[in-house]
Amino acid sequence: TNLRLLGVFDRRLVEVRAESGQPVEAEHWTPTWARVHRVIPYERLDAALADETVEALAQLIVVTQPMLEEAIESGG
């Protein structure tokens, strides 16, 4: 399932990047896991970084959740 969904997100990666405004990647991470992710560089772990990370994750979920649901429903 993860690899099938990785294919879906890989094909839609340009769309995910454009809609989320983030430099996200889709990758086969371990033998049984795939992921859509973004690296957030930082110098200091603080409240500002936490706020930035929360906003980035929330926006990525808003963009990818409907795509995930569509892929699961269509079997594609």
Helix content estimate: 55-70%
Mean pLDDT: 94
Classify the beta-strand content into a percent band: 5-15%
> Based on helices, strands and strand pairing, what is the structural class?
alpha+beta
**Spatial strand sequence of the major β-sheet:** 1-2
Question: What string gives the helices and strands in order?
Answer: HHEEH
Q: How many individual β-strands?
A: 2
- Morphology call: globular
From the alpha carbons, calculate the radius of gyration and give it in angstroms: 14 Å
In DSSP terms (H or I, runs of 4 or more residues), the helix count works out at 3
Summarize the main sheet. Answer: 2 strands, antiparallel
Uncertain regions: pLDDT < 50 for 5+ in a row? none
End-to-end separation: 10 Å
Summarize the structure.
The chain is an alpha+beta fold and 76 residues long. The chain has helices spanning 2-11, 13-20, 47-74; strands spanning 25-30, 33-37.
Question: Would you mind describing this structure in some detail?
Answer:
The chain has about 80 residues and is an alpha+beta fold. About 60% of the residues lie in helices and about 15% in strands. The chain contains three helices and two strands; from the N terminus they run ααββα. It has helices spanning about 1-10, 15-20, 45-75; strands at about 25-30, 35. Strands 1-2 form a two-stranded antiparallel sheet. The N and C termini lie close together (about 10 Å).
List descriptors.
two-stranded antiparallel ribbon, 3 helices, alpha+beta
Topology:
Blueprint: H1 2-11, H2 13-20, E1 25-30, E2 33-37, H3 47-74
Antiparallel strand pairs: 1-2
